[in-house]
């Protein structure tokens, strides 16, 4: 309602969260101004701390002192996507077979969609991030999944649902399980990191191409004196998958608000229209409003899988598609500007290959209607109880 009443008219408006902390949502005309502001005026990192409740759940965590991961994702992971393809494909085949059915077994089975994708995504990402030794370790997988769910759930609850005055107390208690699982994961990871440090410092062996190596390498370069504590069928589907996935992200982004910033300049800041925002104010834009604006997209509430495809005039076949990771002032699923999601290129690659592999190798019985999402605070949560029927195709059907 606020987007149609104010943003469409070029006016900002304030929205109070369940935590009783207001957030100012800017109109689309001010997006360019918003993303151009430097960190010392409008802080992306401080807004991330607010959104993830880090000062309350993890008071000792310094967001600025742990940027090796962001650098490794933005540079090494993106640059080495081609080098990870063999490992990615191997783990995808393994996890998909375990979750959806092995080759030769063409019987129909009913699976929980969220749990199945969870298994496949965790398996593949753990292989790329930590290598083969940990990605199939049942104890480590359990720890990572549990830590991810506990941390994600508590971040949403404390940042968006707990009243501001109660956050310090609730966060202190709620953060205990986060630290517990974090320490247990560190115990698993320590030998792996120690091994990679030796590899990179001695140069006697070639370390595996994974995120552990890239993060350690970056840390060694930043602190040289310190020891840091698919197949052709899938390619044919690429254009259609690019557009279909991008369209899904348009209709169902991770959050209904994007480009979050916190005013950190003393004395506040004036918006382009002259309004003054005080120091500490949260700022964002209404992503779902922009994504469903008829001025930006024809029939914006309709899912059109080929919306982002251009087609051949004679044949009508797709010839090009807007890349999934491409951001703009009209497409904010990955943010926009210099603080866009650093892992969006890998995420795009992973989604295309996973979905392409499943479509090539499995038959899926379609649902009559798409179940609705839920909204918790500003987080858009997909339906978690949906079950689908799926079967492994025969070798002849896959060709």
Automatic annotation (TrEMBL):
PROSITE patterns according to UniProt: CYTOCHROME_P450
SUPFAM superfamilies (UniProt xref): Cytochrome P450
Sample GO molecular function, one term: heme binding
UniProt KW Membrane keyword: yes
Record: residues binding heme: 341
Family: Belongs to the cytochrome P450 family.
Annotated protein name in UniProt: Cytochrome p450 domain-containing protein
Record organism: Hirsutella rhossiliensis
């Amino acid at each position: 309602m606020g987007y149609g009443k104010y943003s469409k008219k070029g006016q900002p408006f304030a929205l109070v969260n369940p935590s009783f902390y207001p957030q100012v949502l800017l109109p689309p005309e001010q997006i360019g101004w918003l993303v151009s502001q430097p960190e010392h005026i409008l802080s992306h990192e401080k807004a991330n701390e607010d959104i993830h409740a880090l000062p309350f759940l993890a008071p000792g965590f310094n967001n600025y002192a742990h940027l090796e991961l962001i650098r490794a994702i933005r540079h090494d992971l993106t640059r080495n996507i081609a080098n990870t393809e063999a490992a990615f494909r191997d783990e995808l085949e393994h996890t998909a077979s375990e979750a959806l059915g092995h080759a030769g077994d063409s019987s129909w089975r009913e699976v929980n969609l969220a749990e199945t994708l969870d298994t496949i995504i965790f398996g593949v990402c753990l292989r790329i991030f930590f290598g083969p030794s940990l990605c199939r370790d049942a104890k480590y997988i359990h720890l990572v999944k549990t830590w991810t769910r506990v941390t994600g759930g508590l971040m949403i609850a404390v940042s968006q649902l707990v009243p501001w005055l109660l956050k310090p107390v609730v966060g202190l208690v709620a953060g205990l399980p986060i630290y517990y699982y974090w320490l247990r994961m560190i115990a698993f990871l320590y030998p792996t990191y120690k091994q990679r440090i030796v590899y990179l410092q001695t140069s006697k062996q070639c370390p595996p191409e994974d995120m552990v190596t890239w993060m350690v390498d970056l840390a060694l370069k930043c602190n040289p004196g310190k020891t840091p504590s698919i197949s052709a069928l899938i390619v044919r589907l690429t254009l259609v998958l690019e557009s279909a996935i991008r369209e899904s992200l348009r209709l169902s982004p991770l959050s209904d608000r994007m480009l979050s910033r916190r005013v950190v300049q003393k004395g506040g800041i004036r918006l382009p229209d002259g309004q003054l925002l005080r120091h500490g104010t949260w700022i964002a834009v209404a992503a779902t409003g922009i994504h469903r604006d008829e001025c930006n997209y024809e029939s914006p509430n309709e899912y059109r899988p080929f919306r982002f495809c251009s087609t051949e005039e004679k044949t009508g076949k797709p010839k090009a598609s807007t890349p999934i990771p491409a951001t703009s002032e009209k497409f904010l699923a990955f943010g926009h500007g210099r603080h866009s999601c650093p892992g969006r290129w890998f995420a795009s690659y992973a989604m295309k290959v996973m979905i392409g592999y499943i479509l090539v190798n499995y038959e899926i019985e379609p649902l009559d209607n798409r179940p609705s999402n839920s909204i918790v605070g500003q987080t858009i949560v997909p339906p978690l109880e949906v079950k689908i029927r799926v079967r492994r195709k025969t070798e002849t059907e896959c060709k």
